[in-house]
Amino acid sequence: MATKLDEILADTRAKVDARKTTADYAALERRAAAHMPRGFAAGLRAAAAKRPAIISEIKKASPSKGLIRGDFHPESLARMFETAGAAALSVLTNEAFFQGSLEYLEVASVAVKIPCLRKDFMVDRFQLLEARASGADAILLIVAALTDPMLTELRDEAARMGLDVLCEVHDRQELERAVQLGFKLIGVNSRDLRTFTVSPELVIELAQWKPADTLMVAESGIGSAADIARYSAAGYEAFLVGEALMRQPDPGAALAALLACECPAEI
């Protein structure tokens, strides 16, 4: 039986194939060359040396929650997150399921100095060209969505293009695959992309197998300073926070409070 992840991947492949047939490759190459990647992993490590490194996610909607933020202006959101102390941004670019776009990534990236992640379901090298051309400094590779040969191909192409990779895992087997393939920036997503259920305990469980030279990012279900403290104690140095901030009247103030550990139990 097909899962939601299968549905998203099938739609993504079809849309990428369609874009490839009409793309102006010369223009994309020029735009990609004009953007100098800002060091996503290095930025997280530098921030984590001082305090929790927060990746603030600019996200309008999701398949499981529907519309998250109606008052959605990526440029202003990016600036307020940077001002509030975000170490990096994550920008959703999947249109069909998350109401994202590459244009959102582009305007957010231009507005800030901190590095930006293209958050999408990457299945083709062409998407990496799109990413850098739109101002991305890093891409997401989801182990559940890709074979080891594809993970290797996209990892190597990202390195060639100067893009960092956040490799996302959801269980121990996927973590072992990521480690064996040499990924040094690994995100543990507590949300199962097949069912979209959230299991926060999974984040704690997988931390015990964290390689010493790997920066681990806790993803999904982070809504309080207590969550960050708990995951920090388990060994995480960076934290991707999206919905909990995007639902707030003032996302920047919510992030500042989270970093100051002054927020209530749920921000």
What are the key terms here?
single chain, 267 residues, alpha/beta, TIM Barrel, 47% helix, 16% strand, globular
Summarize, please:
The chain is α/β, with parallel strands linked by helices and 267 residues long.
Q: What is the fold's blueprint, element by element?
A:
Blueprint: H1 4-22, H2 25-34, H3 40-48, E1 53-58, E2 61-62, E3 66-67, H4 74-84, E4 88-92, H5 95-98, H6 102-111, E5 116-119, H7 125-133, E6 138-142, H8 148-160, E7 164-169, H9 172-180, E8 185-189, H10 200-207, E9 215-219, H11 225-234, E10 238-241, H12 243-246, H13 251-259
Parallel strand pairs: 1-4, 1-10, 4-5, 5-6, 6-7, 7-8, 8-9, 9-10
Antiparallel strand pairs: 2-3
Helix pairs in contact: 2-7, 4-6, 4-13
Structure report:
- One of its GO terms (molecular function) is indole-3-glycerol-phosphate synthase activity.
- Pfam families: IGPS.
- Residues 5-257 form the Indole-3-glycerol phosphate synthase domain.
- This is Indole-3-glycerol phosphate synthase.
- The protein has 267 residues and is an alpha/beta fold.
- The chain is 47% helix and 16% strand.
- The chain is built from 13 helices and 10 strands.
- The strands form 2 sheets. The chain has an 8-stranded parallel beta barrel with strand order 1-4-5-6-7-8-9-10, surrounded by 8 helices. A two-stranded antiparallel sheet has the order 2-3.
- It is globular.
